[in-house]
Structures are given as C-alpha cells and as structure tokens.
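B., you asked whether I could sanity-check this one before it goes into the benchmark set. Here's the sequence:
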Amino acid sequence: MPTSQAISTPDAPGAIGPYSQAIVAGPGSLVFCSGQIALSPVTGQLCGNSAAEQASQVMANLASVLKAAGCGFEHVVRTTIFLTNLADFATVNEVYGRFFSEEHPRPARATVQVAGLPRGALVEIDAIAVKS
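And here's what the prediction gave me:
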C-alpha cells in the first residue's frame, strides 16, 4: 500500500480548504505541491494587484512548501500555471523563470487560462518535485 505524508509549513499560506500544502508520496520521493495563490503566509490576504506581483508571491509560497518537503526548485519536474488572463503570460513567465536555474533541467509545464481563481487571484501555480 502506498504511503503518504502531509507537508505543512507556517512559511506558506495555510490551506483554505480540505487539502494539504503538499504530499510526499511513495517511498518519500514524489512531492505533490497544491496550487498556490498569492496569499501572504502572515496575514492570509491576497498580495499584489498585478500578475507580476502575485506571481512573485506565488513562487515564494511554493519555495516555502518545497523547502518544508526537503527540496527546492531544482527538484521540480512539472508545473501548471493557471491565469485568469492569458495576456499576462509573458509577465508571469518572466517572474517564473527567475526561480529556475539553467544548471538543472527546467520542469515540464502547462499554462491555461481559467475563468476564475480563489480569492480573486490572477495567478495560481502547482508543482510536482522528485526528491533526491
């Protein structure tokens, strides 16, 4: 039977529903990070008015969850970016790209436009990582 462990850190926003910030599955090698929006881990409020500002907070939140799981962006193999306006793609892509080094393979990715996101967010990103 597969085993899983919930990951939780106060350095990222708490779940706003019945889910975990991340799950480490299997023999401890796969990390499934829930989608992050631009919530402040301190206030729980949405940060930033632009897609670029929100993307920066989203990536910081993901970094905290990955760290709590014992890995970092260099371990990420797959992401999904959800945007409420695909016109923000280039801006969000630029922010996103700052978090991935050319020293490691960049993750596979999908980007989709959605009708809406929780709390009126403009950007949400989830990730899957493989721990070393």
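One thing to flag: The beta strands are 4-7, 22-25, 30-36, 76-83, 108-113, 123-130. Otherwise nothing jumped out at me.
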